[in-house]
Amino acid sequence: MSVKKIDVLMGNVRITLRSDESPEYLQKLASYVDQKIVDLKAKNLSASVDERRRSLFIAMNLADDYFKLKDRHTAQDVEHKQLLDERVELESTITTLHEEIESLADQLMQLKADYEHVQKLLDDFDSRKPKQLEVIEIEQEEEEQIIPLAAQKQRKVAN
Q1: Same domain for 90 and 118?
Q2: What's the DSSP call for residue 1?
Q3: How confident is the model at residue 52, as a pLDDT?
Q4: Which domain holds residue 129?
């Protein structure tokens, strides 16, 4: 960038600045310093304090603003890092939960298939049940017929 000249007003003093910064930025800085001078005058310190001390008070106010902003920025950096760490942790948790959901969906599909299989077996069992009952009833009738014959033989032997 090329060096530019700009005239600014601070504390009723016109100063020419040379910088490669934009004129808007330099005017913004000058306005900020000028406001600090106005604030100092409002505290009625300027009348009783020599120029050198007034400059030191202004410098201290500017340094105070700088360090407060720096501390706030540092705190925001720490908070930002914590939020990033929390985000990574949450993304990991989300991934784990998605895997669990997929696993549970697979288990659900398997349970549905098992249920359908068991239901089919029950239906088959129910359809065979009357036939088995008939077979059992027939076997019972045959046993009744056999028992009397055996009883007859026993009677013959006893006679």
Answers
A1: yes
A2: -
A3: 84
A4: 49-137
Question: pTM to 2 decimals?
Answer: 0.51
For residue range 41-51, list pLDDT tens digits in order: 887 665 666 77
The tokens for 128 are: 């065979």
C-alpha–C-alpha distance, residues 18 and 9, integer Å: 14
> Which residues, at least 6 apart from 4, have a Cβ–Cβ distance to it below 8 Å?
18, 19, 20, 21, 22, 23
Q: What is the pLDDT of residue 62?
A: 92
The verdict on residue 38 lying in a domain is yes
Q: Which of 3-7, 17-21, 26-30, 105-109 has the highest mean pLDDT?
A: 105-109
pLDDT in tens, 55-86: 888 899 899 999 999 999 999 999 999 999 99
Residue 131 lies in a domain: yes
Sequence-separated (6 or more) residues with CB below 8 Å from residue 8? 14, 15, 17, 26, 27, 29, 30
Q: Which two three-digit tokens encode residue 158?
A: 């006893």
Q: How far is CA 65 from CA 34, 60, 69, 70, in A?
A: 14, 9, 6, 8
Q: Is 55 inside a domain boundary?
A: yes
